[in-house]
Design brief:
Elements: H1 10-22, H2 24-32, H3 39-63, E1 65-69, E2 72-77, E3 83-88, E4 92-99, H4 101-105, E5 108-115, E6 125-131, H5 132-163, H6 175-178, E7 180-183, H7 186-194, H8 199-211, H9 219-231, H10 234-260, E8 264-268, E9 271-276, E10 281-287, E11 291-298, H11 302-305, E12 307-314, H12 322-325, E13 327-334, H13 338-345, H14 362-384, H15 395-409, E14 411-415, E15 418-424, E16 428-434, E17 440-444, H16 447-451, E18 454-463, E19 466-476, H17 477-496
Antiparallel strand pairs: 1-2, 2-3, 4-5, 4-10, 5-6, 7-8, 8-9, 9-10, 11-12, 11-16, 12-13, 14-15, 15-16, 17-18, 18-19
């Protein structure tokens, strides 16, 4: 790979499709809005845009070359301004591989290169369409550089040990034999998809998409049809809504199955390799040293069934890449297996089962927060739908029950250098952070909290393109002070060192 190469020509098509995907709404509005007299002009403008898009994509493809030389991945690109990026393999933290539908048709792969200098917006370098052979060669060179660096480090350690009259045995382990593998079975995958709550995502996505075309939708005609439909009977309305919900549920379930099919996690030395996908295959490589924390999520459906999902808070990736913003380690796992699995794949993080809860006086504040949401709904419903709206008063005892469930779930634990927080908004969330990974630890006390000797604490780590915050509200003030001292002592030691 020492000669400059271009991407596969499929990269041109991929670039065009990606741009059209991002600009689909403005283009559709341009084509269909306006009177019939302006259709010819709109079509000409659309054709000109497409022509320049194709020309620019072809020129970008011609101008982009890549090769490996002197231990560097070199990429030169730019149509008008020439950009040269020389990335030493020692600086690369991870290389992520994906195969979209286009790449799979032509037997290609897409590489994303992450370094310490990668910002939150995009990876350090991206090769959208190269052959699998070239992809494997780049990854092999990267792995060899890592091994060489590790051997040098081990050699230095041995030399230091011999000099100090102590002998340290350096064990060499075979990568394959050292690998720990987790595979999501298809029955568990279907259960995960069925309990994901993805219906809301599908419905909100459909509403957001249709909202872009409000000027194209004949609302008067739809309103007239809706009136006739309502007159046809309440039973038909309920049946139609039910069928639409079932359809959205099936679409959401199928979507998640396609995304997470063949989900596999492999631990190889100091890295986790996560692969998944049926139509689009993705492979994400995460160095253990870049893991900032662990988040365990249990939604209202999975919690009674004894299942949870485990996410990695990973200091890498970009805001546009959902895989790195919310990195799944285990899509669905039995809660009794959580401790063992986390210890296997993420050494140094240990799930604690005994957490300290909130004082009883905190419950009143949790209840009042729910009342602030419920009371306006009850008043408005009772006023508009009098007298049937009075039924909405049943929401008040339900709010009391929900407040108690939230209050009961909240807790915290400090074990050595590990902080564990548990809270609930809708889903129950458990955060496990190491003290040396915390970027911010904040203790807040409002006027009303101070009267009850309560506090709120928030711990923040870097995750994806931004921060991830774990927060416990209304815990005992002395507990908050203890946690603050625990964190402040580490900061004091850092400043002294």
């Amino acid at each position: 790979m020492f000669e400059p190469k271009r991407l596969h020509p499929v990269a041109v098509l991929s670039s065009i499709l990606q741009t059209l995907k991002e600009a689909i709404i403005p283009l559709v509005v341009l084509l269909f809005l306006g009177g019939s007299s302006g259709k010819g002009i709109q079509l000409i403008i659309f054709s000109v845009i497409c022509f320049f898009l194709i020309v620019f994509s072809v020129l970008s493809w011609i101008r982009l070359t890549y090769w490996v030389e002197n231990g560097e991945l070199r990429i030169e690109s730019g149509v008008f301004v020439r950009k040269k990026r020389y990335i030493r393999f020692e600086r690369i933290h991870s290389i992520d591989v994906s195969e979209g539908i286009l790449q799979r048709i032509f037997g290609l792969a897409q590489l994303k290169v992450e370094t310490a200098g990668s910002n939150g917006g995009k990876p350090e370098a991206e090769l959208t369409a190269i052959t699998k052979r070239e992809s494997n060669e780049i990854i092999s060179i990267f792995n060899e550089v890592k091994k060489a660096g590790k051997r040098k480090l081990e050699s230095d350690c041995v030399n230091e040990a011999v000099t100090g009259k102590e002998l340290t045995k350096v064990e060499e382990t075979d990568i394959d034999s050292a690998s720990v593998v987790f595979k999501q079975t298809f029955p568990q995958l279907f259960l995960m998809a069925a309990t994901s709550g993805g219906v809301g995502v599908v419905l909100s996505g459909a509403v957001a998409f249709l909202a872009q075309f409000d000027e194209l939708i004949p609302f008067k005609k739809i309103s007239a049809e809706a009136e006739r439909f309502i007159q046809s009977g309440i039973l038909l309305i309920i049946l139609t809504v039910f069928l639409l919900f079932i359809l959205a549920y099936l679409v959401a379930t199928a979507r998640i199955v396609l995304i997470y099919a063949y989900f596999t996690v492999k631990k190889v030395e100091e890295e986790l390799i996560i692969s998944r996908g049926l139509l689009e295959k993705r492979q994400l490589t995460i160095p253990l040293k870049k893991i900032q924390g662990i988040r365990i999520a249990e939604n209202l459906i999975r919690q009674p069934l004894g299942y949870a999902s485990v996410y990695l808070e990973y200091a890498g990736g970009s805001a546009s890449d959902k895989d790195t913003v919310n990195t799944l380690l285990f899509p669905l796992v039995k809660k009794e297996q959580l401790k063992e699995k986390i210890n296997q794949f993420v050494p140094g993080y240990e799930l604690q089962t005994e957490l300290k809860g909130l004082p009883k006086r905190s419950y009143v504040r949790y209840f009042f927060r729910q009342l602030f949401i419920i009371i306006p709904i009850v008043v408005a419903t009772s006023w508009i739908l009098w007298p049937w709206g009075l039924v909405s008063f049943v929401l008040i005892p339900l709010a009391a029950i929900w407040a108690y469930l939230k209050f009961r779930e909240v807790g915290w634990n400090i074990s050595g250098n590990q902080l564990q927080l548990r809270t609930r908004i809708v889903s129950k969330q458990t955060y496990i952070f190491q003290k040396n990974r915390l970027q911010v630890f904040d203790r807040r006390v409002s006027y009303f909290q101070s009267r009850k000797q309560l506090s709120t604490i928030a711990a923040t780590v870097k995750s994806g393109a931004g921060p991830r915050e774990g927060k416990v509200v209304d815990l005992e003030q002395k507990d908050a002070e203890f946690m603050n001292d625990w964190f402040s002592y580490s900061e004091f030691k850092k400043s002294e060192g």
